[in-house]
Design a protein that fits this description.
Elements lengths: L4 H23 L8 E8 L10 E4 L2 E11 L6 E8 L9 E6 L6 E6 L15 E4 L3 H33 L2 H34 L1 H27 L2 H24 L2 H8 L1 H23 L24
Parallel strand pairs: 2-6, 5-7
Antiparallel strand pairs: 1-4, 2-3, 3-4, 5-6
Helix pairs in contact: 5-6
Length: 314
């Protein structure tokens, strides 16, 4: 027996309804053929979160957001989502809303907790948390900066107004004159710099010659230093030490009264005798100068010599 048109139409309607249910559940993140857990989380703000958004654990997709609506008689947002039935995390796990990307909207990540408490069961409400996104961070950083910039602009405007009030026409003319003088000074400095450059160019050969002379002098100094290094300084020092030792020995001998010099320095009688002899020689020379006839004379008639009298007065 062939199926009638009515049976065909009924089968077509049933197939269409079944397909519609499968598609609707797929778009809502649920499945007719899988056993899943329904979980809940309550948030103050869910901007960017949409139905059908993935629910992940460590980046792995384990479910989808089923519905987003107000919690009864409050301004809180109740989010319902489904996860795989084989997840056995603690019911103290955290459902965190995070920014999936710059243009990817928001997603929910379950931060699993393994504290030995009862595992998740369908109908549990997880602890909720919202992770600040890049937009929120940038906004929180820009807001204080904007306030500071506005304050700086206000201060600058106040400063300019104060300057306009303080600087009268005469002061402004003086300021303009000072700026002109500064400009003139800069021009003079440029001219001086140009002159110095010309002098350096004209005296380039002399400067090079001077540098060469300095280089030659440095080489000569290095040669002198090498010569000094090659000199037997140790031998010279040893000879000097021997000389000093001998000199010390001589000085000790003199100090102890040995030798002629030592006796002259230490023997007081010898010193007195020498001093007396010296005085007698001086008297003799003086008398010789004053009375030469007593010592040298010629006599044709045999004149008697005049005896020397030490007490004779001048």
């Amino acid at each position: 027996m062939k199926p009638t048109k009515e049976i065909k139409a009924a089968l077509f309607v049933l197939l269409g309804t079944f397909s519609f249910l499968i598609g609707f559940n797929f778009l809502n993140g649920t499945s007719l053929f899988k056993s899943e857990k329904n979980l809940y989380a309550i948030y103050d703000q869910v901007e960017g979160l949409q139905t059908g958004t993935n629910v992940t654990v460590n980046g792995l997709s384990v479910g989808k957001v089923s519905s987003i609506d107000f919690l009864l008689n409050t301004n809180k947002i109740l989010v319902k989502f489904t996860v795989r039935n084989d997840l056995n995390f603690s019911k103290n796990s955290i459902a965190e809303i995070y920014e999936a990307g710059l243009i990817g909207g928001k997603s929910i990540a379950i931060i699993p907790v393994l504290d030995g408490e009862k595992p998740l069961i369908s109908g549990d409400t997880l602890v909720s948390r919202t992770k600040p996104g890049l937009t929120d961070v940038v906004g929180s950083e820009i807001a204080p900066l904007q306030k500071k910039l506005e304050q700086v602009l206000i201060n600058a405007d106040t400063l300019i107004s104060s300057l306009n009030t303080v600087l009268d026409d005469q002061a402004q003319q003086g300021l303009n004159k000072a700026l002109s003088e500064v400009s003139l000074t800069v021009s003079n400095l440029n001219a001086i710099s140009s002159s110095i450059s010309k002098i350096l160019v004209s005296q380039d050969s002399n400067i090079n010659q001077t540098i060469n002379n300095l280089s030659q002098a440095s080489a000569n100094i290095n040669q002198i230093s090498d010569s000094i290094n090659k000199t037997d300084l140790k031998g010279l020092v040893n000879k000097f030490e021997n000389t000093v030792t001998s000199l010390n020995s001589i000085l000790k001998s003199i100090e102890s009264g040995e030798g002629t010099i030592g006796k002259l320095m230490k023997d007081e009688d010898l010193y007195n005798n020498l001093e007396a002899s010296t005085k007698e020689v001086e008297l003799l020379l003086k008398d010789l100068k004053e009375h030469p006839k007593r010592y040298v004379h010629f006599s044709l008639f045999g004149k008697k010599e005049t005896p020397y009298n030490s007490d004779e007065k001048n």
